[in-house]
Amino acid sequence: MTDQKYLDILEYPIILQELSSCAVSEDAKEKALRLYPYDNIYEAKNELSLTLGANSLSTSYGYPPIEKTENCAIYLNRASMGGSLSLKELLSVERVLKTMRRTYEYRKEAEGENDLDTLFSCLYINKELEKKLSDSIASEDQLDENASPALSEIVKKIRHAQMEVRSRLDSMIRSHTYQKYLQEPIVTIRDGRFCVPVKQEYRSEIKGLVHDTSSSGASLFIEPAAVVEMNNEIRILESKKEIEEARIIAALSALCANVKEEIMRGYDALTHLDFAFAKSKLADKMRANPPILTEKGGTNLKKARHPFISPEKAVPIDISVGNEYDTLVITGPNTGGKTVAIKTMGLLSLMAASGLMIPASTESTVRIYKRIFADIGDEQSIEQSLSTFSSHMKNIISIVQNADEDSLVILDELGAGTDPVEGAALAISIIENLRGAGAFVLATTHYPEIKLYALKTDRVQNAGCEFDVASLRPTYRLLTGIPGKSNAFLISEKLGLPQKIIEESKSLIDSGSMRFEDVIGNLEEMRIHLEKEKKETEALKAEALRIRDDAQREKNQLISELKKQQEREKQSALSAIEEAKSYAELLFEEMEGIKKEKDAENFSRLLNASKAEYSKKMRELEGRADPVRENSSKKKLQRPLQKGDIVFIESLGKEGLVISNPQGDRVQVQAGVIKTTVSINDVTLGEKKKEKKKSEGKVTRTGVASSYTKDAMTEISLLGMDSIEAVMALDHFIDQAVLMKIPTIRIVHGKGTGVLRAAVAKRLKSHKAIKEYRLGRYGEGEDGVTIATLK
């Protein structure tokens, strides 16, 4: 278990303060402040699963309506022993019941399973008790007067009695006889009894009881004898009220005591839920993600940020230890971000072990350590006569004695505060000793000897904090694999230190150290060059992926359009089939007529004409049912369409009149009584209207109508008529159709309000000549027409 001392060094208590502020109830806040990192993966994973459960619900459904509630254990224990609770305590119980109910209802509205379901199931729901408490208590100081019938009746009597007293006293203070005796014409209350203020000198003029005297002594508050009995009655009623209120409160307390265990168990679950959602709120505030927890291997943080640095300002870093290397040595200039980097590793490891989400990417892996040690900052102690070096060394000695293979050790400026040569040697020896114990080590330093040690030693890695020499500012980026430079000479030169002094300083440095620093500088230049090329490559890759995605999107769009076109053609084919069926029925009727006239002179002519008409119609229908043939056989318009043109509408198989100029690729046409808008590709130009021959529309001597007559007599338009006119016209039309042996008729009544359609349906239902009827289908006019079959 990590000592509190090291938790303080890594600023873990500040995290707990932030977590506590996210909780609602006091018990949940206390639970947050007591949160301690777990030292085993099972407890840590369980705690993290609760955090993830809360975060999943809050992301999809918002946060539950958890109100600020009190722990009612003390109240309920007293009630269970027969005691009565105060109204304030009863309201606290009611608030707990209401919060549990509303929180449970919140979960019921959410879908799917969740790791918090066990806690939600422990919430105690008692709507009857909750309502009883809510309806009975008006405030912390007063019961509702309707808490019981008896209380309601007593309150009414008290009010009535008080009104009578006031009425009697009001008449007294308005009386000219008594006004001169009164200090003020008002009615007041003293000791719960109605009184009037009487001047001291007129004390004997008003008989009654004196209850009080003004501070000046000039007024006496007298209860007139005329209202003494009435005031007594009020006092008796108020005593009864107090007794009834005590009875009600005792009854409510007993009801709460009966379910004490259930309420407390539910409250405990509510506190845990409040705590879980507090962790979710903290994660949202920090823009945190869930880490991958492990008990073996090491910690690998991706795009990690220190929790106390604003996400807008923080520079994310990648930092790891325990996988490819067990020790990471970080070097670089002061204020470059070395200490923040190691603190980030330590604090995020503690947060993950506590079941909290961390400000790092979801790919981050955190090992659960038994103990985390840290030596960071200036711990000089004047009181104990210890220097900075001595203070650090005392702490490090304790760390060396206790660290093992399940420990993470964080050391800042190891070996500093003493002779550099001795300090570097001591630092290397301490690291080796910790590694020998199996500990994972993060250390920062300025010593080149430790950089060389990291380069030469297996499973020890260098890292450096990047520094922009041009701007003299650190970038706070952590570069693993390359030791950092102090850049003391470059920074001094930029700041204006004479070149002579810088050159003399360089000559005083060991040549080997200078060569080492030059190697580091060359590596840094190479890294910058490679990083630039990497960014260019990634940009090109991103552009290629964008082009691929655009092409895929266009492909999907074309496939979607093709499917829609196929669906439209399918509907057109189904419409053609329906029309073919209707035409076949009409043809059968004609054939029956021809059959009856088979001995007539014109039998052969009629038969051949019917066959020819049938073949023509079938070819038209085949063309409509085959979208490929139809498209390939379309004729281009010789000129643009104009209002008044005669056109042939392919989809309807009829001629029509253009009644308005085209709008884009659509044109409005009228075919008989039908007005519709069709595609320009669906029409071809026809000839101008000619006078119909008088012979058209006549009935042949056989009694079978010609095809034109059939077309004309199979449809009637009732548009513009009222219900009575429409029914009369419909009856006449049906009679004509029966005489001409027309099997199917089409009645156009429009959609409108539906009144005309209803009248038509009612008449068809009762007409003896009608076998069946139905509303039009797609392509027939839909709800605007009715198709009827005659007997």
How would a textbook summarize the main sheet? Answer: 6 strands, mixed
- What is the end-to-end distance? 96 Å
Helix amount: 40-55%
Query: How many strand segments?
Result: 25
Low-confidence stretches: 379-386, 628-634, 688-712
Description:
With 791 residues, the chain is of the alpha/beta class. It is built from 24 helices and 25 strands. A 6-stranded mixed β-sheet has the order 12-13-14-10-15-16, sandwiched between helices. Strands 20-19-18-17-21 form a 5-stranded antiparallel β-sheet, with no helix packed on it. Mean pLDDT is 82; it is low at 379-386, 628-634 and 688-712.
Key structural traits:
single chain; alpha/beta; six-stranded mixed sheet
Task: Characterize this entry briefly.
By secondary structure, this protein is α/β, with parallel strands linked by helices.
List the helices and strands and how they pair.
Blueprint lengths: L3 H6 L2 H11 L3 H8 L7 H21 L11 H8 L6 H23 L7 H5 L5 H10 E3 L2 E2 L5 H26 L1 H4 L8 E3 L2 E7 L8 E6 L5 E6 L3 H31 L1 H27 L5 E3 L4 E6 L12 E5 L5 E5 L6 H16 L11 E3 L3 E5 L12 H15 L4 E5 L8 H17 L3 E6 L2 H9 L3 E9 L4 E8 L7 H8 L3 H9 L3 H86 L6 H23 L1 H7 L12 E4 L4 E5 L7 E6 L2 E6 L3 E3 L21 H7 L1 E3 L5 H17 L4 E5 L6 H12 L3 E6 L9 E6 L1
Parallel strand pairs: 7-11, 10-14, 10-15, 12-13, 13-14, 22-23
Antiparallel strand pairs: 1-2, 3-4, 4-6, 5-6, 8-9, 15-16, 17-18, 17-21, 18-19, 19-20, 23-25, 24-25
